[in-house]
Amino acid sequence: MRVAALQMDSGCDVASNVEAATSLVTRALEAGATYVQTPEYTTYLGPPSGLAAAAETVPGATTRHFGALARAARATIHLGSIPEVASGGKVHNASVVIAPSGEVVATYRKAHLFDVAVTGEVASRESDAIEAGAEMVVATLGEARVGLSVCFDVRFPELYRRLAGAGAQVLAIPAAFSAATGRVHWHVLVRARAIENHAFVVAAAQAGSHGSFPTYGHSLIVDPWGQVLAEGPAEGEAVLVADLDLADVARRRGQIAVLDLARPDVYAREVSVLDTSDDQR
User: Fold this and answer.
1) How many structural domains does the chain have?
2) Cβ(159)–Cβ(136) under 8 Å?
3) Predicted pLDDT at 277
4) Nearest to residue 116, comparing CAs of 176, 178, 39, 172?
5) Any idea what the CATH number is for the domain that residue 119 is in?
6) What is the dihedral of CA 127, 202, 107, 26, to 10 degrees?
7) 71-130 residue pLDDT tens
8) Which candidate, 238, 230, 231, places its Cα nearest to that of 24?
9) Domain of residue 186, residue span
10) What is the pLDDT of residues 232-241, one digit of tens each?
11) Residues annotated as catalytic (active site), given as ranges
12) Strand, helix or coil for residue 76
């Protein structure tokens, strides 16, 4: 399975972003990729006040455009995320998989929203404009099963264990990861999700300033042993390509059977919190 992770520097102009993504997708397809992933906020990365105007339906104009490319190349194009029309004046941060038929076959709406306040580094309240999703999704693409997630989801390992348990051999983590936290957390988190589930990870990322929200870049493709197969630069666009041998997932899971040896019966119990302070002895 030849995959591509596309690194972008998206802005506020939807048409320009679609044009840039089209150029990168074309390069990936020409390199022989049969699965191409774009980053989070592919079509709009700017002030939250502009999200509603940039939002569209799924299927919609953008998915039809990339659907034509997918159909012509007989490849899967995964739009890491685009703003999707939701209810109540908010939008969904929607990750959309387009099959070689050109049709949308899976949509995952980001479940964990980036509401953080790291003093002097980064502050965000994604939930002010985004409506969280409530469904976990694995897309079946031929022999591959791809578990879907978006950016901040990477901090919640429970999600990925459920995706792996549902058969995912590849974990998708398209992102617009903040530069402030990316410097210390991005590689560790992405590689951890690969290692703890013995799954490939494809993580297409945004790189650039985007006004007041600098992103980290460093798109990654990681194997089930946690080894980095390809990495993007800190700045600018890039097309990362790697060949994934899906049999390697079964091989690693056979060596260290993390899925089979898990103890959900124990995790479902109450935690015993013991008071061992001196005044209680």
Assistant:
1) 1
2) yes
3) 82
4) 178
5) 3.60.110.10
6) 110
7) 999 999 999 999 999 988 899 999 999 999 999 999 999 999 998 888 888 888 899 999
8) 238
9) 2-280
10) 999 999 999 9
11) 40, 110, 151
12) strand
